Amino acid sequence: MENQMEMLSISTSPSYNEEPGTRSNNKNDENDEQRSIDKSRDVNQRAAWNMLSTKICYLVSITNSINIGIVKEKLLRQNMIRGKHLFCHFILQAQLTSSQKTHVYATLVAVINLELPEIGELVLNRFIMKFKSAYFEENYAAWFSCLIFIGHLINHSVADEMLGVELLTLIFEQQTTFSFEIMRVAIQFLEICGKNISYVFQKWLTEILDKIHNFVNDKQIDIEDRKCLNLRLSKLLNNQFNPKYLDLVPPYACQTTHFSTLDSVENNESYTIGYRYDPEYESNEKKYILELQKYDDEEESVDYY
Question: Would you give the DSSP letter of residue 137?
Fold first, then answer.
């Protein structure tokens, strides 16, 4: 896998340094062989779908903090509108099984959201759904993982700060007894997106910090746990909520923020990742290419300096 990642890095230049129009030209070159294939036939569409699924899964799996720009460009060369549920599924699965790369997966979603906000919103809503189901099923590992991922999306301004307020409010109101792990995750969540929340909800944030302080100072709590939480809380306050993770989203980028809430996302929403025949396959492929070209033209016309 490491050799594959090195080959990927060598063969493709970083996405933000590519010349305007390179992506669409590469996509056309990549599809030259496919043009002679009759995509109106079900068997050919099914084969294309399987290839799309394999490529998206592979690219998500190799993503790291160095090659995010490259992976973004390679993903966008696929029809991400057609494969949006696949991308969402693979991101969720990767996060639940490899949470140490949370900031990497969230940043990938953030840079995709710059060009295809529909996909960023879909991922956000899927994680909200998973958080809600895992929380009420008391699957602590799953809702911890979803909570931290959403925190990164708030930090990247993909999700609104109000969602962060709702999530921590739910946790502090619903829990009858607080554990060390819940408090640790709450502090970690604030480490990631507390800065953004503090701009809008300073009073609420003060109340949450008071509750954490009360827990930390409870003498019934194990002294080692109290010391650990006190240390993280002190670092958080001394650092003035500045996130410690690198922000790999371009500073000039105009991010699209989604205002999803716990109540606005229903758990019965359908997310189909299976194959479906598309009677307008070729037309939809052309629409996708034109959509990406529109974003290329917008980026080229903006004066960042």
Answer: T
Q: Return mean pLDDT, the chain.
A: 82
Of 127, 216, 214, give the one whose Cα is nearest residue 164.
127
pTM for the full predicted model = 0.83
Q: Contact, 71 vs 21, CB < 8 A?
A: no
Report d(CA 127, CA 141) in Å as an integer. 14
**Rounded to whole angstroms, how far apart are CA atoms 106 and 303?**
27
Tokens of 299: 């980026």
What tokens does 177 get?
């007894």
**pLDDT at residue 129, as a whole number:** 95
pLDDT band, residue 239 (cuts 50/70/90): confident
d(CA 16, CA 243): 23
**Would you call 15 helix, strand, or coil by DSSP?**
helix
Secondary structure class of 279 (helix, strand, coil)? coil
- 3 state DSSP class of 67: coil
- Block residue for tokens 């004066």: 303
Distances (CA, A) of 195 to 159, 189, 190: 14, 11, 8
Whole-angstrom Cα distance, residue 53 to residue 87? Answer: 8
